[in-house]
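Researcher: Next entry in the queue.
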Amino acid sequence: GGHGGPGDEELRRRLDGLVRKHKVVVFIKGTPAQPMCGFSNAVVQILRMHGVQQYGAYNVLEDQEIRQGIKNYSNWPTIPQIYFDGEFVGGCDILLQMHQNGDLVEELKKLGICSALLDTEKEDAK
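Model: Structure for this entry, 126 residues:
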């Protein structure tokens, strides 16, 4: 890990801006409409299940600088990557785990996002 020139600092600032642009930000291969890998697809599907409409999705396949830069930024070697409120959450497996154990609903609530799964649970409770 050699620390390169001013380009690194510039990229870091750019990534800082990207992860804070929306409450939920994902870096995936492809687009939400057309994910190019199974893990990216899983992330998109989980967010869709929770009814998260407004989120930032960045296609790393279209931007090699981001593809490499975001791995250094988070110290996480793989894509997809998920950010809540500018904080790195993890990859597909972590999001899936949070989805399964209910943490995701809580985290979304902290962001002011009411998970769509809460509505369906209320229906079942009657």
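Model: The mean pLDDT is 92.
Researcher: Noted, moving on.
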